[in-house]
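Budget justification note: compute hours in this period were largely spent on complex prediction jobs such as the one shown. Inputs:
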Amino acid sequence: MYELFDHTADVGLRMRAGSLDELFADAGRALFSVIVANFDAVEPVQELALRVEGSRRDDLLFDWLAELLYTFETRRVLLSDFHVSVSNNGLEATARGEPFDPDRHELDMEVKAITYHGLKVEQDGDGWLAEVIVDL
Amino acid sequence: MTKPGYGGPLEQIDECCWRIPKSYKSGMQVEGRIFADDRLMGQIRADQAPEQVANVAFLPGIQEASMAMPDIHWGYGFCIGGVCATDPDQGGVISPGGVGYDINCGVRLVRTDLGQDDVQPRIQELVQALFKEIPAGVGRGGKYLFDRKQMRQLLATGSKYLETQGLATAGDLDHTEAGGCMPGADPDAVSSRAMERGDDQCGTLGSGNHFLEVQVVDEIFDDEAARVMGLEQDAVCVMIHSGSRGLGYQVCDDALRDFRPVPAKYGISLPDRQLACAPVESPEGRRYLRAMRAAANYAWANRQLLMWQTREIFAEFFGQSWQSLKMNLVYDVAHNIAKLEEHTVGGRKKTLCVHRKGATRAFPAGHPEVPDRYRRIGQPVIIPGDMGRTSWVLVGQPGSMERSFGTTCHGAGRVMSRKEAIRQAKGRRIDRELAAQGVVARSRSRTGLAEEQPAAYKDANVVVDVVHRAGLASKVARLRPIGVVKG
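Corresponding output:
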C-alpha cells in the first residue's frame, strides 16, 4: 500500500508492504498517482521492461523512481501496474500502462525530481517501510 | 508530519537582521545571518530553515556568513532564500543543492503602452487566448522544436542563439541578466538524459508555482526609476515566472548523483548529505558549473520564447505589432543560480562563487553589469508575489554589496504545504474568489489554483518591506495581477 503525505512545498510517498518487491511496485504506483489526477483511468495495455542497478536499497528506490519519471517524461507513457523483482544488485521490473492521452488522462502535478530528503527503506515489524519526498 | 521548529539561538543585530552565532554548532565556519523583522521571525522560527542556514555555514571556503532572505523557507539541504559565497582560492566549494533543482528559475517583466482601461474590458478573452496558446502544465510539449545541433547551440549561448533565429532582439538580451548567456556553458557536460527531457520543453511554462500574469502598475514608489524602466501608473505589464524545465531538473539530479561520493574524496564532512559539494577548482566542481550554465542558458531561452509567444498573442489580440505596443523587456532575473562574481571581503576584492537559491541578484547603481539604461538607477529586481496578490519591482542598492553579496529576496515564500492548501480550499472555488478580487485565473492542473492560493504564501509586501529597510533593494513599483495563467 502507499499513501501521500505533506511536506512543505512538495509531497512525500510512504509505502508499506510485506516484501521488497511489493514495496517497489507500490512506490511506482504512488509516483504516478501524484502525476495523474485520475490514476484509475490508466489502462495497463502496454508493457515495458525496466532495470536499475545498485546495491544500497534507499539509493535503489531513488534510482527506480528517477527512472520511472524519466520514462514518463521522455516517452509520454503513464504506468499503473508494476511487477518488480529486487535482488542484491538492483531490480528488474515489468511495468504496464499506456501512452498519455490528453482526452482521458488528467495530469496534475509536475514532479521535478526525486529527492534524497528523508529517503528510507527499512524493515518494519513483519514487513517493509519506505519513504521518499518528490520535488514539485 | 509536522516538523519541530527551530530551537537554536537567534540574536537580533538590528531591526531587519538576525544572527545565528558561529558557536551554535561545532563545524560552523562563519555565522548565520537572516534578514527578517519581528513580523516574519515567528513564521521563520516555526520552520527548520534556520537550522539549514547553520548547516550551510559548514561549507569549506564560505565567506562572511551563511545568509538568508526574509522569504526564507525550508528546502533540500539548503533553505530556499539562501545565499552562500565561497572563495575558490581557499578550497571554496560549489554545491548543486545551493542552486536548486530548477536551475535559473527566474522571472521577467515586460512593459506595454496599454493601460488598464484598454485591457480590463477584455481580460477574460485575453486570459483565454494566453491559456490556449501558451504551452503550460504537465506533459505538454512546446511549439519550438530544436534538433540536437540547434539545442547544443542554445545550451551554449542561450538567448544569443535565439537572436540569430529572429526570436530575440538585441534589446531583449541587454535587459536580461548575463545577457541571457553565461559564458563557460558546455553542452557536453549535459547528459543525454537531460537533453531528452528538455527536447520539446523550451518555450513552455511548466507547472507548480510557475505562472504568466497580466498585471497593472498599482503604485509607484520611485518616480525616476519607474520612468527609466518605462512603468507608469495603471500601465499593463506581463510577468513570466519559469525556469529550465526538465533539462535543468535532470542536470541537478545528475550532479547530485555524481556528487554522492565526492565530499568524502575531498575530506569534507557535512551535517546533511544534501549539502553534497566539491571544490570549485576540482574536476567535479568545474563540470557541474559547465552543466549548470548550460541549463541556465536553456532557462533564459525558455523565458525569451515564452515572452516571444506572449508578444505574438498580444499583437493578434490588440491588432498591432508588439513593437508598436512597445512590449519591451524591463528586465529578467535568475533566482536559482551560482555565479563567479567579484566582491569585497575584508577590504580585498575577490572572485567568489555566489550561490543564490530562491534569491535574486540586486546590483546597485554604477555596477558594470547593470545595463547602460539602468546604470544610474541600479539593477531592476523583479519579485513575483503569489497568485492573486501583489508583485514588486525593486532596484538594487549599495547595501546589498555590503551586506548580502549583492543579493535580495525572490518572492513570498510558502508557509503552507500543498496538501494543507488544498485542504483549506475544499469546498471553495478559488477561481471565483480571485475573480471577486478582479483576477481572472486559469490553471491546467486540477489542484493548481487551490495549492497556489494566496494564503499558502507569506505576504510579499512584508518581505519586500524588510529588504527595503535593510538597504538591499528599494521599492520602485507595486504591481497587481488582473489575469493569471498557470500550468
